[in-house]
Structures are given as structure tokens and as C-alpha cells.
Design a protein that fits this description.
Blueprint (H helix, E strand, L loop, with lengths): L5 E2 L5 E2 L7 H7 L4 H13 L2 H6 L18 H15 L3 H18 L2
Length: 109
């Protein structure tokens, strides 16, 4: 899917390598710079399919089968860079990244 233009139901389009689309930025405008940076990094490093179908670590769940995990190297790279840039603990950044993934999944369903 990489390199292809993605179309949305409302008619907006996005190049996956460009980060958040203008439509997505309008939805995220109330978030902090840290959360915006996480969302943009996720949109650049992971494919549209990965953002919609994967979970953070692919752990087992109590309801249904687990989702596949995001690639560990890219996931850890985003967490490390954001933690250093914003001087935050890794656990806090991972929690915010998990929330971003949930939010992106709901936006693109």
C-alpha cells in the first residue's frame, strides 16, 4: 500500500508518506504537540493497513483473537525519539501512542 494515494469516504485523500492529511489535522487540532508528533510519525512509518488492523504489541485478549502487533523496531523507534524530544518517560509515551493508534483506527474505519 505504500506510495499509493488513500481515499476517504468524505472525499479527502492522503499520500501515506506525507503524515496526517489536512482533514486529519483538523480532527487532531486540540491535541498537544507530543500527541501530534506521535500521530504523524505513526502515519509516516506504518502503512494504512497496519494502522487499521494492528495493535501495539499483539497481546492476547479476553474477547476474540488478538490483533497482529505493529513492527517492534519502528514502534520502539517512535517511542524513543518522542521520549527524548519531549523529555517524557517511555511508559507515558507508549500509553499516548496506544491512544493514538486507537484514535487512528476509529478515524479510518
Amino acid at each position: 500500500m505504500s506510495g499509493q494515494i488513500v481515499s476517504y469516504r468524505d472525499g479527502g485523500t492522503k499520500d501515506p508518506k506525507a503524515g496526517l492529511s489536512r482533514r486529519d489535522r483538523d480532527v487532531w487540532h486540540h491535541e498537544t504537540r507530543e500527541v501530534m508528533a506521535i500521530a504523524q510519525a505513526m502515519c509516516r512509518l506504518f502503512t494504512f493497513h497496519q494502522l487499521v488492523t494492528c495493535s501495539m504489541k499483539g497481546a492476547t485478549t479476553t474477547t476474540g483473537s488478538p490483533r497482529p502487533s505493529l513492527p517492534a523496531a519502528e514502534r520502539n523507534a517512535i517511542i524513543d525519539v518522542i521520549a527524548k524530544t519531549f523529555d517524557k518517560p517511555l511508559v507515558d509515551v507508549e500509553e499516548k501512542m496506544r491512544g493514538c493508534l486507537r484514535h487512528l483506527r476509529l478515524m479510518h474505519k
